Amino acid sequence: MALTDELVSLSLRPAVDVGPEPHRTPLTEAEVEMLANRLLDESIGAPLWIFAYGSLIWKPDFDAVESQLGATRGWHRSFCLQMTRWRGTRAQPGLMMALDRGGRCNGIVFRLADDDRLGQIRRLIRREVGTIEDAATVRWIPVATAHGLVRALVFWAGPKGERVSRKLPLETVAQVLARACGHMGSCAEYLYLTVKHLEERGIRDRNLWRLQKLVADELVAIHGLNAAAGSH
């Protein structure tokens, strides 16, 4: 990988959380409960699988009893969501990864423990959803595994709205990811951890592999390093 711990450290800086993004409506506890119970009802009678394609691979928030490589058709990873919180700010917005329509995505499916299924779904909603506008990105998708097809829950699939920027050139995405940082860390760090953990699982996403090289080049240029220094 061209993107390294050393380069990523250059993208990190302190940031203050200024609170919820404007024009977005946080989920109330009642709405979290309603969504969690709906997903619970939809999952009854089958194992509960979660399809992880990004941060849930390297920072899960559930009790998994099994994991497998999985692939879903009709979706691909895309840094298509502008964000002004978490790993970006209003002064320097970042881009978050979601699943967008088309192509194929290789990731990991995790089977959750049956104990406290509702509680685990609730935790995932609080972590992944947050606002009413984002609830529609939670969906069930078919995922192919070595042992057959499973029905898995996925977050941030098919986002819509004014924050969505589709088909951005990778060079443009790299410029954003190399510069954006919020109170939860930088976009470069998010990309680095995702690519690193995908590689450890034997998954190479062609676009993300190219993107990490572009972000590394951006960080080298921003901080006035020479290419040789950035590669070590």
TrEMBL record:
Keywords attached to this entry: Lyase
Stored Pfam families: ChaC
Top-level taxon in the UniProt lineage: Bacteria
A molecular-function term among this protein's GO annotations: glutathione specific gamma-glutamylcyclotransferase activity
Signal peptide positions (record): none
Entry-linked SUPFAM superfamilies: Gamma-glutamyl cyclotransferase-like (SSF110857)
Cellular component annotations (GO), alphabetically ordered: cytoplasm
Name used for this protein in its record: glutathione-specific gamma-glutamylcyclotransferase
